[in-house]
């Protein structure tokens, strides 16, 4: 079904009526969407390549979005303030410690603009989420990539050496859990560095997937924001809240740091619909539990299959994992796309690994059937 037809077929009114189908759920709209890398999939294809939440937004958030359409002609001053107040209360911090962004991507951009001073070093793991590298042409920082250690954790010793050795300002990007590996770096080790770090080292803790984490060795770097001006925590509504398409994230920091950051936010950046959905979803226990439960069911299906097929996998604390695939990755991905599953992309230097996002358990069952078939044919 083409996008136009999908809209005509009343998908949007289905949402309004609160039908069981979810906005981003399962397969229907996917075939109508532009695909990455020019690959086309048969109808019913499933996106396992962008770490999205297959459940879509919560029913209450859908209703709130539809209601917010009546405010589309109004600037969102009050709604913006209301969400900031709600998030601040939820985290038990002051409103002045929060900066909203159009996705955490905007907060990461603001952070690079605000804290990667000219000729500063930006120190990051390799591989990790690349967004902070996008601004090399406009911000003149020196990028230093430090390979993950043998446990696929951030190599904090080498990162520290890279950040502190020059004596110049450094922005340290910590993605915990890390994308694309889905592994965590123990927070006690990060805390030890933060406690001891000089003021010119600024920590950017990207916690996009923290709500999925079960491993007790990881916790939020938020514990530092009262005491330290050089820590910024970044969070998103895109993952566990299922709002990737609405674009909403936020940064949390010391009030002085948040004020510096907000100088780089565009005016009235968050739209009415995203604010409404965020307000209706934030800390919604049922939504969080359902997302976690669905994710762990999907994860177990995948892990069992990978083990059965003898394909090495990394431990995951997120809504995706990395596993080995033998043979040429691009060929594997193209064949998977033809079979209806859009998976991974290249994450150098881990070029014989595939990053797989979890969709609904039934979709992962179908994916696993295909993977078994591929393995039998020597395609994986
Ligand atoms: C670690 C990490 N940070 C940030 C983002 C950006 O998320 P958004 O801009 O949708 O909040 C992603 C998206 O995949 C991510 O994996």
Describe it.
The two termini are 30 Å apart. Residues 1-32 have low confidence and may be disordered. α3 runs antiparallel to α9 (272-281) and α4 (77-91) packs parallel to α9 (272-281). The protein is α/β, with parallel strands linked by helices and 380 residues long. The chain is built from 12 helices and 11 strands. The strands form 3 sheets. A 7-stranded mixed β-sheet has the order 2-8-7-6-5-3-4, with helices on both faces. The chain folds into 2 domains: 35-51 and 285-377, Aspartate Aminotransferase, domain 1 (Alpha-Beta Complex); 61-281, Type I PLP-dependent aspartate aminotransferase-like (Major domain) (Aspartate Aminotransferase, domain 2, 3-Layer(aba) Sandwich). Bound molecules: pyridoxal-5'-phosphate (PLP). Residues 51, 103-105, 129, 131, 175, 179, 206, 208, 236, 238, 244, 249 line the site of pyridoxal-5'-phosphate. The site of pyridoxal-5'-phosphate has 14 residues, from α5.
Summarize the structure.
The chain is an alpha/beta fold and 380 residues long.
């Amino acid at each position: 079904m083409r996008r136009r037809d999908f809209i005509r077929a009343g998908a949007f009114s289905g949402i309004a009526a609160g039908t069981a189908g979810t906005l981003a759920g399962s397969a229907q709209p996917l075939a109508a969407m532009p695909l990455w890398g020019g690959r086309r999939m048969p109808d019913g294809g499933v996106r396992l390549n962008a770490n999205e939440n297959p459940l879509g937004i919560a029913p209450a958030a859908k209703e709130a979005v539809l209601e917010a359409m009546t405010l589309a002609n109004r600037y969102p001053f009050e709604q913006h303030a209301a969400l900031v107040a709600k998030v601040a209360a939820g985290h038990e911090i002051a409103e002045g410690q929060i900066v909203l962004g159009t996705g955490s991507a905007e907060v990461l951009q603001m952070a690079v603009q605000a804290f990667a001073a000219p000729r500063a070093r930006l120190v990051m793991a390799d591989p990790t989420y690349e967004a902070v590298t996008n601004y090399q042409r406009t911000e003149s920082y020196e990028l230093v990539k430090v390979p993950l250690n043998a446990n696929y954790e951030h190599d904090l010793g080498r990162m520290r050496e890279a950040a502190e050795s020059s004596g110049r300002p450094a922005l340290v990007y910590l993605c915990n859990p890390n994308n694309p590996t889905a592994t965590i770096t123990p927070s006690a080790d990060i805390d030890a560095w933060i406690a001891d770090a000089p003021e010119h080292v600024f920590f950017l803790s990207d916690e996009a997937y923290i709500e999925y984490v079960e491993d007790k060795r990881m916790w939020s770097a938020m514990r530092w924001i009262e005491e330290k001006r050089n820590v910024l925590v970044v969070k998103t509504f895109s993952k566990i809240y299922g709002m990737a398409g609405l674009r909403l994230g936020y940064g949390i920091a010391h009030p002085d740091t948040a004020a510096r950051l907000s100088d780089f936010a565009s005016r009235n950046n968050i739209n009415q619909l995203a604010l409404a959905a965020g307000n209706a979803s934030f800390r919604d226990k049922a939504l969080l539990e359902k997302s976690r439960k669905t994710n762990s069911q999907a994860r177990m299906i995948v892990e069992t299959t990978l083990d059965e097929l003898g394909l090495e996998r990394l431990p995951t604390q997120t809504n995706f994992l990395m596993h080995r695939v033998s043979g040429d990755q691009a060929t594997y991905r193209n064949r998977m796309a033809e079979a209806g599953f859009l998976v991974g992309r290249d994450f150098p230097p881990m070029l014989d690994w595939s990053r797989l996002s979890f969709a609904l358990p039934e979709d992962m069952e179908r994916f696993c059937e295909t993977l078994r078939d591929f393995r039998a044919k020597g395609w994986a």
